[in-house]
Give the backbone structure.
Amino acid sequence: MSPASSEAPLLDVKNLRVRFETTRGVTEAVRGVSFTVGRERIGIVGESGSGKSMTGRAILRLVRPPGIATADRLAFQGTDLMALSERRMRAMRGRRMSMVMQDPKYSLNPVMRIGRQLIEALKVHERISSKEAQRRALDMLADVQIRDPERVLAAYPHELSGGMGQRVMIAMMLIPRPDLLIADEPTSALDVTVQLEVLRILDDLVKDRGMGLIFISHDLRLVSTFCDRVLVMYLGRIVEEIEASRLDEAKHPYTRGLLECLPEIGAPRTPLKVLKRDAAWA
Amino acid sequence: MSEAQHMTGGKIAVSDLSVTFVQGRRRIRAVKGVSFSVKPLESFGLVGESGSGKSTVLRAICGLAPVSGGDIRIDGGAIQQPRDKAFARRVQMVFQDPYGSLHPRHTIDRVLSEPLSIHRFADREERIVQALKDVGLDARFRFRLPHQLSGGQRQRVAIARALIVEPEILLLDEPTSALDASIQAEVLNLLNRLREERSLTVIMVSHDLAVIDHMCERLLVMRGGEAVEALDRSSLADRKVSSDYTRALLTASEGYVR
């Protein structure tokens, strides 16, 4: 890759909006968000209804009707995603930019063995022999720290634990070596100790491959320790953008409220601070 | 004081409790010989990851899980098998999922009046109005259906339903894990206030060490159906823990370390 292209942002989003037109009126889930993503870990944090997941889906043009996504600019490595045909967009998804969802239980095909699903993902993007695909799938599983990849290849999704399932999902999404990975609450369904292992894998992959990562989560504490930069969303808008390491200096009352309402081990037993929502934030 | 005396002195004493689920030919031991005792007015926490058996212990106390060994005592007395009405009057539980634990086609009014009629309370009208007020819900919610309420509001209804029969013991199974962080703070504050006002003895189950630390005086760390370590608040605050597993949980609660 030439130096020039690595300087330009991977993803450039300007004034992204998602609205739902229903019989009862128009609801805007995302109301004009703008940001850029480079080869870095960026976190999008917000509570339910903040539009964080919808933002992730809109980037991949996965907003389903009656939802409508619009943007002044949605460019991935210089390509205008809004102008692409659905066929070209499908080629873009997976190969160049990819998404990991929250729950592996619903993202994997329950009646297909893991091996077949992985190999299918490979063969969609590359013309390789079945033998080669098999070998690559085994390598990928080893990359996401699965100890006996042969067993996992032959297993059905229900035979795997949540942590294993999520690793398989990550492996599948990374097979075509995308430049950008959107992870929507990738570890929220996992136990805390497993969560950290999965994050470690994502972290190494971002470092080793120079991938960009958009990490969508409700967990401000986790995001602030994992990401380089954090976007805080509230009711469809970005209310604050801040370096993760300087989160303590956050200015917006919503960000501060999110930080302060969490219980902390060893803190005095006073009532937790309660977020006072201000109509002016919206 | 011997361990046996200590066990009988508690409001709730669980000793050597085992729970075994039988599935065809398979026997799954979900809880393996767990003991603890909770003093009157104390809040006791059970912490662990999925499959640790923490929720199963709570369900066993309520008679919702097959106990295969050990016993559970309340105020030193054995519990009636099966659980009777008097038990339900004294022990109430709040479940994790406020979406699943309220009947979708019953109004809040009906949800709250059912326990009152079962336990033959006279002044139902006043009690329902008061119960809503106690959990910080506006009176206009009274005739709504659960789907018209947010998750936090539903969990308030579940708490109101549990407390409306004036129990002595409240069992909380991950009461805030389905809620947003800011709503969690509101519900935890509510629970702390009510526990004081109502002189409740509480057992709370959570996967979140920080939540348990905020709510409970003592706690038991569980893993794979076994008790790993019993701790009190101060040893947790000073990180004076003896097992590697508890230490791993503590580290994990601080977020990702690069």
Remarks:
- The first helix of chain A runs from residue 3 to 7.
